[in-house]
Protein backbone atom coordinates (compact mmCIF):
# COMPACT_ATOMS: atom_id res chain seq x y z
CA UNK A 1 0.00 0.00 0.00
CA UNK A 2 0.85 3.66 -0.44
CA UNK A 3 -0.13 5.80 2.56
CA UNK A 4 -0.34 9.60 2.82
CA UNK A 5 -0.22 11.23 6.28
CA UNK A 6 -1.35 14.84 6.64
CA UNK A 7 0.36 17.03 9.24
CA UNK A 8 3.79 18.10 10.42
CA UNK A 9 4.02 17.55 14.18
CA UNK A 10 5.11 15.00 16.73
CA UNK A 11 1.75 13.25 16.48
CA UNK A 12 2.18 12.78 12.73
CA UNK A 13 5.75 11.50 13.25
CA UNK A 14 4.38 8.91 15.74
CA UNK A 15 1.65 7.91 13.27
CA UNK A 16 4.19 7.62 10.42
CA UNK A 17 6.50 5.56 12.63
CA UNK A 18 3.63 3.19 13.48
CA UNK A 19 2.47 2.96 9.84
CA UNK A 20 6.06 2.14 8.79
CA UNK A 21 5.90 -1.00 10.95
CA UNK A 22 3.01 -2.41 8.90
CA UNK A 23 3.95 -5.24 6.55
CA UNK A 24 1.14 -4.00 4.29
CA UNK A 25 2.81 -0.66 3.54
CA UNK A 26 5.47 -0.10 0.84
CA UNK A 27 5.57 3.68 0.64
CA UNK A 28 4.68 6.56 3.00
CA UNK A 29 4.22 10.18 2.03
CA UNK A 30 3.68 13.03 4.49
CA UNK A 31 2.32 16.50 3.71
CA UNK A 32 4.02 18.70 4.71
CA UNK A 33 5.99 16.58 7.25
CA UNK A 34 9.18 17.59 9.08
CA UNK A 35 12.87 16.65 9.23
CA UNK A 36 12.24 13.62 11.45
CA UNK A 37 9.36 12.30 9.38
CA UNK A 38 11.61 12.65 6.29
CA UNK A 39 13.64 9.64 7.54
CA UNK A 40 10.69 7.28 7.07
CA UNK A 41 8.45 9.08 4.55
CA UNK A 42 8.73 11.21 1.45
CA UNK A 43 7.74 14.72 2.53
CA UNK A 44 5.51 16.63 0.12
CA UNK A 45 5.42 20.43 0.13
CA UNK A 46 1.64 20.80 0.43
CA UNK A 47 0.03 22.43 3.45
CA UNK A 48 -2.63 20.62 5.47
CA UNK A 49 -5.40 23.06 4.46
CA UNK A 50 -4.70 22.86 0.71
CA UNK A 51 -7.42 20.27 0.12
CA UNK A 52 -7.51 20.47 -3.70
CA UNK A 53 -3.74 19.97 -3.98
CA UNK A 54 -3.81 17.08 -1.49
CA UNK A 55 -6.67 15.35 -3.33
CA UNK A 56 -4.84 15.79 -6.64
CA UNK A 57 -1.63 14.40 -5.13
CA UNK A 58 -3.49 11.36 -3.75
CA UNK A 59 -5.05 10.64 -7.14
CA UNK A 60 -1.88 11.27 -9.17
CA UNK A 61 0.16 8.99 -6.89
CA UNK A 62 -2.46 6.24 -6.49
CA UNK A 63 -2.56 6.65 -2.69
CA UNK A 64 -4.43 3.74 -1.09
CA UNK A 65 -5.09 5.38 2.28
CA UNK A 66 -4.81 8.92 3.64
CA UNK A 67 -4.54 9.50 7.40
CA UNK A 68 -5.37 12.98 8.72
CA UNK A 69 -3.49 13.86 11.89
CA UNK A 70 -4.50 17.48 12.50
CA UNK A 71 -7.68 19.09 13.79
CA UNK A 72 -7.92 22.07 11.38
CA UNK A 73 -8.29 20.04 8.16
CA UNK A 74 -10.71 17.61 9.83
CA UNK A 75 -12.96 20.41 11.09
CA UNK A 76 -12.59 22.07 7.68
CA UNK A 77 -13.95 19.01 5.84
CA UNK A 78 -10.90 17.35 4.30
CA UNK A 79 -12.43 13.87 4.72
CA UNK A 80 -15.51 14.96 2.74
CA UNK A 81 -13.24 16.34 -0.01
CA UNK A 82 -11.35 13.04 -0.29
CA UNK A 83 -14.48 10.88 -0.13
CA UNK A 84 -16.13 12.97 -2.86
CA UNK A 85 -13.31 11.81 -5.17
CA UNK A 86 -13.66 8.16 -4.13
CA UNK A 87 -10.47 8.17 -2.03
CA UNK A 88 -10.04 6.16 1.17
CA UNK A 89 -9.33 8.40 4.13
CA UNK A 90 -9.12 7.90 7.90
CA UNK A 91 -10.77 10.55 10.04
CA UNK A 92 -14.21 11.99 10.80
CA UNK A 93 -16.25 13.89 8.23
CA UNK A 94 -16.83 17.58 8.78
CA UNK A 95 -20.24 17.09 10.41
CA UNK A 96 -18.68 14.71 12.97
CA UNK A 97 -15.44 16.64 13.54
CA UNK A 98 -17.65 19.41 14.98
CA UNK A 99 -17.33 17.36 18.19
CA UNK A 100 -13.97 19.13 18.52
CA UNK A 101 -14.66 22.10 16.26
CA UNK A 102 -17.34 23.58 18.53
CA UNK A 103 -17.25 23.44 22.33
CA UNK A 104 -20.85 24.72 22.37
CA UNK A 105 -21.97 21.84 20.13
CA UNK A 106 -20.23 19.19 22.26
CA UNK A 107 -21.57 20.64 25.54
CA UNK A 108 -25.11 20.73 24.13
CA UNK A 109 -24.71 17.13 22.91
CA UNK A 110 -23.62 15.98 26.39
CA UNK A 111 -26.53 17.78 28.02
CA UNK A 112 -29.06 16.31 25.57
CA UNK A 113 -27.81 12.72 25.98
CA UNK A 114 -27.02 12.85 29.72
CA UNK A 115 -23.27 12.39 29.28
CA UNK A 116 -21.61 13.59 32.51
CA UNK A 117 -19.84 16.96 32.17
CA UNK A 118 -19.53 20.29 33.99
CA UNK A 119 -22.52 22.66 34.24
CA UNK A 120 -22.17 25.45 31.67
CA UNK A 121 -23.70 28.31 29.71
CA UNK A 122 -22.93 29.49 26.17
CA UNK A 123 -22.58 33.13 25.10
CA UNK A 124 -22.28 35.03 21.81
CA UNK A 125 -22.28 38.45 23.50
CA UNK A 126 -19.46 39.72 25.73
CA UNK A 127 -21.99 41.88 27.59
CA UNK A 128 -24.20 38.89 28.42
CA UNK A 129 -21.16 36.81 29.43
CA UNK A 130 -20.02 39.52 31.85
CA UNK A 131 -23.52 39.83 33.32
CA UNK A 132 -23.45 36.08 34.01
CA UNK A 133 -20.03 36.36 35.67
CA UNK A 134 -21.35 38.94 38.17
CA UNK A 135 -23.19 36.20 40.08
CA UNK A 136 -20.95 33.19 39.31
CA UNK A 137 -18.90 31.12 41.76
CA UNK A 138 -15.10 31.13 41.41
CA UNK A 139 -12.81 29.73 40.15
CA UNK A 140 -14.59 29.39 36.80
CA UNK A 141 -13.57 28.19 33.31
CA UNK A 142 -13.84 30.14 30.02
CA UNK A 143 -13.51 28.27 26.73
CA UNK A 144 -13.29 29.59 23.18
CA UNK A 145 -15.88 27.70 21.13
CA UNK A 146 -13.62 27.01 18.15
CA UNK A 147 -10.13 25.61 17.58
CA UNK A 148 -7.36 27.47 19.41
CA UNK A 149 -4.30 25.18 19.19
CA UNK A 150 -5.27 23.61 22.52
CA UNK A 151 -4.83 26.95 24.29
CA UNK A 152 -8.32 28.50 24.25
CA UNK A 153 -9.20 27.52 27.83
CA UNK A 154 -8.85 30.05 30.65
CA UNK A 155 -9.12 29.07 34.32
CA UNK A 156 -10.09 32.24 36.15
CA UNK A 157 -9.63 32.47 39.94
CA UNK A 158 -11.51 35.76 40.40
CA UNK A 159 -14.31 37.77 38.83
CA UNK A 160 -11.74 40.34 37.62
CA UNK A 161 -9.72 37.62 35.87
CA UNK A 162 -12.87 36.24 34.26
CA UNK A 163 -13.96 39.67 32.99
CA UNK A 164 -10.50 40.17 31.48
CA UNK A 165 -10.76 36.68 29.97
CA UNK A 166 -14.01 37.61 28.21
CA UNK A 167 -12.28 40.69 26.79
CA UNK A 168 -9.36 38.55 25.56
CA UNK A 169 -11.53 35.92 23.89
CA UNK A 170 -14.48 37.92 22.58
CA UNK A 171 -13.29 41.52 22.12
CA UNK A 172 -9.51 41.32 21.59
CA UNK A 173 -9.99 38.14 19.51
CA UNK A 174 -6.86 36.51 20.97
CA UNK A 175 -7.82 33.29 19.13
CA UNK A 176 -9.57 34.94 16.19
CA UNK A 177 -13.06 33.75 15.31
CA UNK A 178 -12.70 30.82 17.77
CA UNK A 179 -13.82 33.30 20.46
CA UNK A 180 -16.96 34.58 18.69
CA UNK A 181 -18.85 32.17 20.95
CA UNK A 182 -17.60 31.16 24.39
CA UNK A 183 -18.60 28.52 26.91
CA UNK A 184 -18.47 29.40 30.61
CA UNK A 185 -18.47 26.33 32.82
CA UNK A 186 -18.07 25.30 36.42
CA UNK A 187 -14.54 24.58 37.62
CA UNK A 188 -14.07 20.87 38.30
CA UNK A 189 -11.43 19.45 40.62
CA UNK A 190 -9.66 16.11 40.36
CA UNK A 191 -7.14 14.30 38.17
CA UNK A 192 -7.16 14.84 34.43
CA UNK A 193 -6.89 11.75 32.24
CA UNK A 194 -6.80 11.41 28.46
CA UNK A 195 -8.37 8.37 26.83
CA UNK A 196 -8.05 7.80 23.08
CA UNK A 197 -10.38 5.52 21.16
CA UNK A 198 -10.97 4.15 17.68
CA UNK A 199 -14.53 4.48 16.33
CA UNK A 200 -16.20 3.09 13.19
CA UNK A 201 -19.53 4.91 13.43
CA UNK A 202 -21.09 2.33 15.76
CA UNK A 203 -18.37 0.41 17.61
CA UNK A 204 -15.81 2.03 19.91
CA UNK A 205 -12.53 0.44 21.01
CA UNK A 206 -10.61 2.13 23.81
CA UNK A 207 -6.85 2.61 23.58
CA UNK A 208 -4.69 2.92 26.68
CA UNK A 209 -5.09 5.88 29.05
CA UNK A 210 -2.57 8.73 29.24
CA UNK A 211 -2.01 11.88 31.26
CA UNK A 212 -0.95 15.23 29.80
CA UNK A 213 0.96 18.18 31.24
CA UNK A 214 -0.45 21.33 29.64
CA UNK A 215 1.30 24.15 31.51
CA UNK A 216 4.63 25.49 30.30
CA UNK A 217 6.51 25.40 33.60
CA UNK A 218 7.24 22.95 36.42
CA UNK A 219 4.56 22.52 39.07
CA UNK A 220 1.82 23.17 36.49
CA UNK A 221 2.70 26.87 36.41
CA UNK A 222 2.88 29.18 33.42
CA UNK A 223 0.76 29.43 30.30
CA UNK A 224 -1.23 26.68 28.63
CA UNK A 225 0.63 24.93 25.82
CA UNK A 226 -0.15 22.21 23.31
CA UNK A 227 1.35 19.78 25.87
CA UNK A 228 4.79 19.56 27.52
CA UNK A 229 4.83 15.81 28.16
CA UNK A 230 2.79 12.76 28.86
CA UNK A 231 2.73 9.32 30.42
CA UNK A 232 0.78 6.13 29.74
CA UNK A 233 -1.01 4.33 31.26
CA UNK A 234 -2.43 6.59 33.97
CA UNK A 235 -2.41 4.84 37.36
CA UNK A 236 -5.47 6.93 38.26
CA UNK A 237 -7.50 5.36 35.44
CA UNK A 238 -8.71 2.37 37.47
CA UNK A 239 -11.05 -0.46 36.51
CA UNK A 240 -13.80 1.33 38.42
CA UNK A 241 -13.27 4.50 36.34
CA UNK A 242 -13.14 2.43 33.13
CA UNK A 243 -16.41 0.66 33.98
CA UNK A 244 -18.16 3.97 34.67
CA UNK A 245 -16.90 5.55 31.44
CA UNK A 246 -17.91 2.54 29.37
CA UNK A 247 -21.39 2.64 30.88
CA UNK A 248 -21.99 6.41 30.71
CA UNK A 249 -19.52 8.16 28.38
CA UNK A 250 -17.80 6.22 25.58
CA UNK A 251 -20.55 4.31 23.79
CA UNK A 252 -23.05 7.01 24.78
CA UNK A 253 -21.02 9.58 22.80
CA UNK A 254 -20.80 7.34 19.71
CA UNK A 255 -24.54 6.60 19.90
CA UNK A 256 -25.37 10.29 20.39
CA UNK A 257 -23.40 11.30 17.29
CA UNK A 258 -25.10 8.56 15.28
CA UNK A 259 -28.53 9.65 16.53
CA UNK A 260 -27.74 13.23 15.45
CA UNK A 261 -27.01 12.02 11.90
CA UNK A 262 -23.28 12.64 12.39
CA UNK A 263 -21.75 9.14 12.57
CA UNK A 264 -18.18 9.41 13.79
CA UNK A 265 -15.37 7.41 12.18
CA UNK A 266 -11.80 7.95 13.33
CA UNK A 267 -10.27 8.75 16.71
CA UNK A 268 -12.21 10.29 19.59
CA UNK A 269 -10.01 11.68 22.33
CA UNK A 270 -11.85 11.91 25.64
CA UNK A 271 -10.42 14.52 28.01
CA UNK A 272 -11.72 13.40 31.41
CA UNK A 273 -11.71 14.89 34.89
CA UNK A 274 -11.86 12.33 37.69
CA UNK A 275 -13.95 14.39 40.13
CA UNK A 276 -15.05 13.35 43.63
CA UNK A 277 -18.49 12.72 42.07
CA UNK A 278 -17.06 10.49 39.35
CA UNK A 279 -15.58 10.96 35.86
CA UNK A 280 -16.78 13.95 33.81
CA UNK A 281 -15.96 14.92 30.21
CA UNK A 282 -13.77 18.03 30.01
CA UNK A 283 -13.58 18.05 26.21
CA UNK A 284 -13.56 15.94 23.09
CA UNK A 285 -10.94 15.96 20.35
CA UNK A 286 -11.54 14.41 16.95
CA UNK A 287 -8.02 13.01 16.42
CA UNK A 288 -4.97 11.60 18.20
CA UNK A 289 -3.63 13.87 20.93
CA UNK A 290 -0.19 15.41 20.75
CA UNK A 291 1.87 14.23 22.66
CA UNK A 292 -0.61 11.47 23.68
CA UNK A 293 0.08 9.66 20.38
CA UNK A 294 3.78 9.56 21.28
CA UNK A 295 3.13 7.45 24.41
CA UNK A 296 0.12 5.41 23.27
CA UNK A 297 1.25 4.26 19.80
CA UNK A 298 4.60 2.79 20.97
CA UNK A 299 2.56 0.56 23.32
CA UNK A 300 0.06 -0.54 20.65
CA UNK A 301 0.66 -4.07 19.37
CA UNK A 302 -1.77 -4.15 16.42
CA UNK A 303 -0.96 -3.37 12.79
CA UNK A 304 -2.39 0.17 12.70
CA UNK A 305 -3.40 -0.15 9.02
CA UNK A 306 -5.79 -2.98 9.94
CA UNK A 307 -7.37 -0.74 12.59
CA UNK A 308 -7.63 2.31 10.30
CA UNK A 309 -9.35 0.21 7.62
CA UNK A 310 -11.73 -1.38 10.13
CA UNK A 311 -12.82 2.11 11.25
CA UNK A 312 -13.49 3.12 7.63
CA UNK A 313 -15.31 -0.12 6.77
CA UNK A 314 -17.39 -0.41 9.94
CA UNK A 315 -15.73 -3.68 11.02
CA UNK A 316 -14.00 -2.48 14.20
CA UNK A 317 -15.93 -5.08 16.24
CA UNK A 318 -13.68 -7.72 14.63
CA UNK A 319 -10.46 -6.07 15.88
CA UNK A 320 -8.90 -7.16 19.18
CA UNK A 321 -7.03 -4.04 20.25
CA UNK A 322 -3.87 -4.90 22.20
CA UNK A 323 -1.37 -2.83 24.19
CA UNK A 324 1.85 -3.93 25.80
CA UNK A 325 2.26 -3.99 29.58
CA UNK A 326 5.18 -1.57 29.23
CA UNK A 327 4.75 2.01 30.43
CA UNK A 328 5.74 5.06 28.37
CA UNK A 329 6.78 8.62 29.25
CA UNK A 330 7.28 11.46 26.76
CA UNK A 331 9.16 14.67 27.64
CA UNK A 332 8.75 17.54 25.18
CA UNK A 333 11.87 19.55 24.35
CA UNK A 334 10.71 23.05 23.46
CA UNK A 335 12.26 26.34 22.37
CA UNK A 336 12.74 28.60 25.38
CA UNK A 337 9.99 31.23 25.35
CA UNK A 338 7.28 28.86 24.04
CA UNK A 339 4.28 29.32 23.92
CA UNK A 340 4.72 33.11 23.48
CA UNK A 341 7.81 34.00 21.42
CA UNK A 342 10.92 32.00 20.63
CA UNK A 343 13.77 31.85 18.16
CA UNK A 344 14.19 29.02 15.67
CA UNK A 345 16.77 27.82 13.17
CA UNK A 346 19.22 26.29 15.70
CA UNK A 347 20.98 23.06 14.74
CA UNK A 348 19.80 19.91 16.54
CA UNK A 349 22.64 17.57 17.53
CA UNK A 350 22.82 14.09 19.03
CA UNK A 351 19.85 12.56 17.19
CA UNK A 352 22.01 9.59 16.16
CA UNK A 353 22.15 8.55 19.84
CA UNK A 354 18.63 7.13 19.52
CA UNK A 355 19.52 4.81 16.63
CA UNK A 356 19.30 1.13 17.51
CA UNK A 357 18.25 1.77 21.11
CA UNK A 358 15.22 -0.37 21.83
CA UNK A 359 12.50 1.36 23.84
CA UNK A 360 13.74 4.90 23.13
CA UNK A 361 12.09 7.11 20.50
CA UNK A 362 12.72 10.61 19.20
CA UNK A 363 9.62 12.15 17.64
CA UNK A 364 10.09 15.44 15.77
CA UNK A 365 7.46 18.13 16.34
CA UNK A 366 9.05 21.34 15.06
CA UNK A 367 12.09 20.58 12.90
CA UNK A 368 13.21 21.40 9.38
CA UNK A 369 16.27 21.26 7.09
CA UNK A 370 18.27 24.46 6.64
CA UNK A 371 20.03 25.53 3.41
CA UNK A 372 23.03 23.31 4.26
CA UNK A 373 20.78 20.29 4.83
CA UNK A 374 21.24 20.31 8.60
CA UNK A 375 18.29 19.59 10.91
CA UNK A 376 17.28 22.75 12.79
CA UNK A 377 14.57 23.86 15.21
CA UNK A 378 11.41 25.09 13.48
CA UNK A 379 8.74 25.49 16.16
CA UNK A 380 7.83 25.98 19.80
CA UNK A 381 7.69 22.29 20.57
CA UNK A 382 10.74 20.82 18.84
CA UNK A 383 11.12 17.16 19.90
CA UNK A 384 9.32 14.54 21.96
CA UNK A 385 11.63 12.12 23.77
CA UNK A 386 9.68 8.94 24.56
CA UNK A 387 10.99 6.01 26.59
CA UNK A 388 9.47 2.73 27.69
CA UNK A 389 9.95 0.92 30.98
CA UNK A 390 8.53 -2.01 32.93
CA UNK A 391 6.98 0.54 35.31
CA UNK A 392 6.03 4.19 34.95
CA UNK A 393 8.87 5.19 37.29
CA UNK A 394 11.36 3.28 35.15
CA UNK A 395 9.95 4.82 31.94
CA UNK A 396 10.21 8.27 33.51
CA UNK A 397 13.84 7.70 34.55
CA UNK A 398 14.64 6.43 31.04
CA UNK A 399 12.99 9.44 29.36
CA UNK A 400 14.88 11.93 31.51
CA UNK A 401 18.12 10.06 30.79
CA UNK A 402 17.45 10.23 27.05
CA UNK A 403 16.68 13.99 26.95
CA UNK A 404 20.43 14.50 27.56
CA UNK A 405 21.32 12.64 24.35
CA UNK A 406 20.04 15.42 22.10
CA UNK A 407 20.68 19.15 22.18
CA UNK A 408 19.95 22.51 20.56
CA UNK A 409 20.38 26.15 21.60
CA UNK A 410 17.55 27.42 23.89
CA UNK A 411 16.44 23.85 24.71
CA UNK A 412 13.73 23.98 27.37
CA UNK A 413 11.73 21.28 29.16
CA UNK A 414 9.73 20.61 32.26
CA UNK A 415 11.50 18.47 34.87
CA UNK A 416 8.38 17.07 36.53
CA UNK A 417 6.64 15.13 33.73
CA UNK A 418 5.03 12.12 35.35
CA UNK A 419 5.78 13.30 38.87
CA UNK A 420 2.19 12.40 39.74
CA UNK A 421 3.27 8.78 39.30
CA UNK A 422 5.08 9.06 42.64
CA UNK A 423 1.77 9.83 44.34
CA UNK A 424 -0.12 6.95 42.74
From TrEMBL:
GO-annotated molecular function = ATP binding; metal ion binding; phosphoribosylamine-glycine ligase activity
Domain (ATP-grasp) ranges: 107-316
What name appears for this protein in its UniProt entry? Phosphoribosylamine--glycine ligase
Q: Which HAMAP family match?
A: GARS
Its family remark reads:
Belongs to the GARS family.
Tell whether Cytoplasm is among the UniProt keywords.
no
Reactions catalysed, semicolon-separated, are: 5-phospho-beta-D-ribosylamine + glycine + ATP = N(1)-(5-phospho-beta-D-ribosyl)glycinamide + ADP + phosphate + H(+)
- Lineage of the native species? Bacteria, Bacillati, Bacillota, Clostridia, Eubacteriales
Name the pathway it acts in: Purine metabolism; IMP biosynthesis via de novo pathway; N(1)-(5-phospho-D-ribosyl)glycinamide from 5-phospho-alpha-D-ribose 1-diphosphate: step 2/2
Q: Which cofactor does it need?
A: Mg(2+); Mn(2+)
Q: Does the keyword Ligase apply?
A: yes
Q: Which SUPFAM superfamilies match?
A: Glutathione synthetase ATP-binding domain-like, PreATP-grasp domain, Rudiment single hybrid motif
User: What Pfam families does the entry give?
Assistant: GARS_A, GARS_C, GARS_N
EC category: ligase
Q: Could you tell me the keywords of this UniProt record?
A: ATP-binding, Ligase, Manganese, Metal-binding, Nucleotide-binding, Purine biosynthesis
Enzyme Commission numbers on file? 6.3.4.13
- GO term, biological process aspect, one: purine nucleobase biosynthetic process
- Record's NCBIfam families? purD
Amino acid sequence: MKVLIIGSGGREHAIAWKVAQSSRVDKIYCAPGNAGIAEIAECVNIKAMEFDKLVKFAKDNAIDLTVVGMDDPLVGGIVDAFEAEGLRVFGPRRNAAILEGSKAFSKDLMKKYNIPTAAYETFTSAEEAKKYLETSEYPIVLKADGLALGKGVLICQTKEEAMEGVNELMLDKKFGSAGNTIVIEEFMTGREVSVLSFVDGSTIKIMSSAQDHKRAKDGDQGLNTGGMGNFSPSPFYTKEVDDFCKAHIYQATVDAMKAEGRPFKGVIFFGLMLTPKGPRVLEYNARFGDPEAQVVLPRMENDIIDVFEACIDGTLDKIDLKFSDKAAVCVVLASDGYPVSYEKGFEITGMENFKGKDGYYLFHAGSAFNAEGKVVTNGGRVLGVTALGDTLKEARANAYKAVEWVDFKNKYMRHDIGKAIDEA
